[in-house]
Queue: 3 jobs
Job 1
Amino acid sequence: MNASDHASLDGKRILVAEDDPVSASFLHDALSGLGARVYSVDDGERAWLAACRERYDLLLLDCRLPGMGALQLVRALRKNPESASRQVPVLATSAEVDNALADALHAAGCGRLLPKPLSVEQLEAAVRSCLHMPASPVIDDDAGLEASGSIENRDALRNLFRGELLALTAEWPQLCARPGTLRERLHRLRASCGLCGAHALDHACAELAASLDGGSNIHAQATMHFETVMCETLWALRAHDDGSVMPNDQS
């Protein structure tokens, strides 16, 4: 299975409301490249009209759109019984993330506030989480082999990686109380993820690190997601050692 096989968003209809041309182009191209059908608008009024008129699978709204930003749009859409997209999931984006904004968006019914700039991987992970779609394989054998150079090296690195994750699990409560130390630990863990083909955990690391400067609800969501993916990764590593069937193995 290559990247394009598991990256597709299966034709999901996504309304992107972004007034910055560079950001709009990035979001359109990234989501289209992942298989989504993207509909773009550049101000709050057009976003409002589009969301009222048609039902999308996801709304991706900038917080500072001309006329009506993400928070105002979410509040208005949730209150309008005639809006076609009244109940659909919402992600918001902002170059300036703070606790008050994140908490207000969460209370209004927005799934997550994403800090800009963000990578394609972070964008895909957030969209998949919001839409409850299956993620990429927890452990990618081919990527691990390419990074390590041989099956023997890959398996040896994964054995060390498993020990690193077990140690992290034991230290987790203390790390969560020390944001600076946690940020540094996540940075080191991402290097190990790359060598072992643990893409899902790498994305969760990036998301959690970004959330350290966000609101309390955003951080809580990212922490929960990270803990889930870390457990899934440990399970996958154990299954690999035992010769068991992996969760994404269809054979």
Job 2
Amino acid sequence: MSTRASDAYAALRIPDYRFFLAMRMSTTLAIQIMSVSVGYFMYDLTGDPLALGMIGLAEALPAIGISLWAGHIADKYNRRNIIAACITMLMLCSLALVWLVWQKDLLPKNTLVTGLYSVIFCTGIARGFFSPTVFAFLPQLVDKKVLPNAITWNSSSWEVASITGLGVGGLLYGFAGVTTTFVVMTALCLLALFLALRITKHPVPTTDHSEPALERIRAGLHFVFKNQLILSAIALDLFAVLFGGAVALLPIFAKDILQVGAEGLGVLRAAMSLGAISTAFAIAHRPLGRSAGKMMLASVAGFGLCIIVFGLSRNFWLSFACLFVAGVFDEVSVVVRSSLLQHLTPENMKGRVSSVNSMFITSSNEIGAFESGLAARLFGNVPYSVVFGGVMTLLIVGFTWWRAPKLRKLDFSQLHRAEE
């Protein structure tokens, strides 16, 4: 194996990291299967599209609301144990869903719907703790030399599990039924818990346990908002997703504009993730170095251009290509932002800083979907609303280039040499 190829797989030779990666994939599979199957089940029960939107809100609100506190906890207590507790909570939620399905003919519909929302609310709490803790735990498992490699493998495995989970969830629900789907989801959570407990316990980074929680949370916020590199990278990604996210409107494009039906919708939904996976594998073999900041800005601009062309396209394969390339550009932005957060954040503050990142990125996905729908309503024309979002993304890139010179001049090779 060549030196470059050997370097690309360096993180995968660490046992704890392999368990971590497998745990992350199992958990993501379970979460994505839950996302698809609960949505189908809720729509079967109610026939109300608004009920589907309320599922996302029921999960996003607790996840966003708990994020800052979760980051404080991740910096204070054993991170492996927190991850195990989160997975246990997800497993209990899966079991609750199994019970609700078994009782669906005995329970009133309103009680069943309330039960589903309650379970999803609890999964939002678990995910609110899980995300910053996983981010903070990763650098404890590998040496700094292979951290960039570990980040890209982590990102690519998440993308693979996300695509697979969405597909498996739909197939299981359609061919095996909702009960079997929820049982499989529970089994994946159990597997993830087993893998999490196989990871060696690592000591909590040195911290002042006497410091009040609010002071520690305030310190994490202060660190983010005073660091131009981190703040500009998070803000750039946030606003790009906020304005450039066309995913929420894909059902309209598939049905009314491209006229490819549900099958075409599935292909379009997978396009961005396929592009992101291919980029993640490429970056794992050839990590970003010089001009990383310029590459991030150029990638977000490329993402905006792809969204504009997608909005104007009336050809299915052109639309697919636009979303695929948009996924390529988006993954570059994700890797740069994740690497920046890992390299510039002190070990005893990674949970709190990651929680700020999670809060903004989670809210941008949910609010971005709302913005896309609102723009479509205001414009009265879905394609124009998508084009508007792409244009806004380009304007944001131009503003960031002007106002964030440190991000524009970012050089990862210098960052790595400084750490050594």
Job 3
Amino acid sequence: MRILVVEDHEILARNLVRYFAMKDISVDVALDGRDGLYKAATKYYDVVILDIQLPEMDGLEVCRALREKGKDVSIIMLTSRSTSDDIVTGLESGADDYLVKPFEYQELFARINALVRRRMKNHSNTLIKIDDIVLDIEKVEVYKWKQLIELSKLEYELCKYLMQNKGKVLSRQEIYETVWWEFDGDFLASKTIDVYVGYLRKKFGKKFIETKKGYGFLIP
């Protein structure tokens, strides 16, 4: 699971990162609304935790902008105001749930799990299908012509990220930050990514992934 925390209160943001790390959950942090919108719009996340009161852009603006861009990501609004009008405004902006500050981390975690389960149940996005290739997120499996294709962890994560962003050119930096996030150092990341793209092409065909010279890769 990948989570984006958009919260300008640095202590709270750091505490959330520590808490989710104990749950083996990867977390990115944005300290203002504009950076939060950029990260949420350009990377894949299961859940965005979005404070309403933010510098640059407030959470309501960020939420509306994400929905206008067609980003189908679960959003939990954090608010220090518990009036019904504020809550309704947040939900009408496109949020899936809300939580009033201060809150218990366990409750936030429960809300996150509930949203993820609901999305998996109500949406077909547990299966990503491109031509004859099907990726099953829930089973962590990939099939070609209904035949299971054996992939390493990194091959699978790279394949999933590219398929989730079909039609979008992904830079090596974006791929590195999303897929290779748990590995330390640069260790020739650019060449490593090229190697793994080559592995996927061997298993799914040369035309499965296109190279945009100077920009990155995409599945057309």
